[in-house]
Amino acid sequence: MERENLSAFLVTHLPNIRYLCGFTGSHALLILGRERCTIISDGRYQEQISREVVGADFVLQGQRRDSVATAETLKDYPSGKVGFESRHLSVALHTTLVEACTDRDFVPLTEWIEELRLTKEEGEIDSIRRALEIAERAFEQVLGDIREGMEERELAHILEDRMWREGAEKESFETLALFGARTSLPHGKPGKTVLVKGNPILMDFGCAWEGYCSDITRTVFLGDPGDEFRAAYRAVWESQNAAVQVIRSNVPCRDPDVTARMVLQKHRRADQFMHSLGHGVGLEIHEIPRLSPTEERTLLEGMVITVEPGVYVPDWGGIRIENMVVVRSDGAEVLNGSSTECIVL
To answer: Any long-range contacts for 165-169 (C-beta under 8 Å, 24+ apart)?
Structure first.
């Protein structure tokens, strides 16, 4: 803020507000000043803020609109430039603030707080590890629930229920469970497709613990999938393991992705891998950095990232294997405890 000569910085993205002051509710704005901070919310969260928030004064929104309460609170801060999160501030709120605060110059900024969240402290990593342990226990249990004739949406519901029973706060994202040829959809929505013998089963799932997310994908088979599926699985497995070996601090984020694709190319499957290799995970399921050919960042000690190569063939099926790792100076610390070997039920 001193470098950019800001008198205040308006934070509107809820995960960033939680990271900065601890608030876990669904409605708030946070004003950061050089010497003081203010959180603005309505009466629903007054008691919660008194218990959770550290380092910020509370302004009750009351019957005022967000824009009015924010504009009035900003007037208590020195005049000058006010930074705001350009990706998270609505056009309507921005317009009102500009009209109400004529002595302020509003400056759009990108990923200021996200850059602080880029690397995780050990306590954050412990929360992610716990979230992943919960998800993996649920996965081990749900393998015994899989049966011929069940629907995709039924399996997704059972998996979510298992995570809740194991202590999850919530799902990290909508649980994905796909059967047969529909496994070729990287982000397909579970439907009424029925499981039959020989089908691949792709499950992408995760949960949160103390706000921090886990993310895991496993592909298993009900009955013998045949030689082609086994060969494709082996290609993805080798690709994932090779990419993990490349990961360590000060390595370009693109390198693991390039390595994964080179392995798939040897198996003549590189053109069947159509998404980036991975992404950061923390308070949100998708955070910076991305492991992709276009990412310009470098891996840093303490980043938590996914490694999830896959192959997808329309009208045939797909395979994805996803683990979570912590970037360390001497390599990747794999957080997963469950096997990535081919599982045939």
So the answer is: 165/138, 166/134, 166/137, 166/138, 167/134, 167/209, 168/131, 168/134, 168/135, 168/138, 168/207, 168/208, 168/209, 169/207, 169/208, 169/209, 169/210, 169/211
